[in-house]
Design goal:
single chain; about 210 residues; mainly beta; Protocatechuate 3,4-Dioxygenase, subunit A; five-stranded mixed β-sheet; four-stranded antiparallel β-sheet; 9 strands; about 10% helix; binds fe (ii) ion
């Protein structure tokens, strides 16, 4: 592993330790080739999570008023010329028995760099499917805050032919977390600086065996 990648990973793990989030999975460091070489992101790790059989599924949350079906299939949501801070969001989708869920649908939508949702089009909306190891990875931006909420992403996760999990993901160390009644510590991503951007990680557990 390159020294810079190692620093990023160690930083991410330190963040996760501070969070004390129960379901954090410490992943083997296996930096893969970056699809966006201008960003020194910590890359998604090999599918060797420290997973506990029978672990609780990821918490469900409301999808809020701005979900829009039929988003485009794409991993890169960052708009050209955006002034938002780039974020690479990745992780794995697992069953409660720690099995990776291949071809799971992940639909991501969130506010833009001004805290607004695109309800006319599909900016900062997109979906993809996990690979055979249950891995996913989006490239997007840090959403701005909007009134009444802390910073968050919305996501739907669905294994093939199974029910949809709708939830939200949160950022650590956000002052507004404490003021947001929807905020749940279990839904905080591991986030670390990665070059000019951020590397964020969250592993979903679906209520499947
Ligand atoms: Fe929202």
């Amino acid at each position: 592993m390159q020294p810079s990648r190692r620093r990023i990973l160690e930083s991410a793990l330190a963040v996760s330790g501070q969070l004390g989030v129960r379901r954090l999975r410490i992943l083997a460091c296996a930096a893969l080739a970056a699809p966006y070489p201008h960003l020194a992101f910590a890359q998604r790790a090999a599918p060797t999570p420290q997973c506990y059989d029978g672990d609780a599924p990821t918490i469900r949350q409301t999808d809020g008023p701005y979900f829009k079906p039929s988003s485009p299939e794409r991993a890169d949501l960052a708009e050209p010329g955006t002034r938002g801070r780039l974020v690479e969001l990745g992780g794995v989708v697992l069953t409660r028995a720690c099995r990776p869920v291949a071809r799971a649908l992940l639909d991501l939508w969130h506010a833009d760099e001004r805290g607004e949702y695109d309800n006319a089009g599909f900016r900062y909306r997109g979906h993809l499917f996990t690979d055979e190891a249950g891995r996913y990875r989006f490239r997007t931006i840090l959403p701005a805050l909007y009134t009444g909420r802390t910073r968050h992403y919305h996501v739907k996760v669905q294994a093939p032919e199974r029910p949809v999990l709708t939830t939200q993901l949160y950022f650590p160390n956000e002052p507004a977390n404490a003021r947001d009644g929807l905020f749940r510590r279990e839904l905080v991503m591991r986030v670390a600086d990665a070059g000019d951007g951020l590397a964020a990680r969250f592993d979903f557990v679906l209520d499947l065996r």
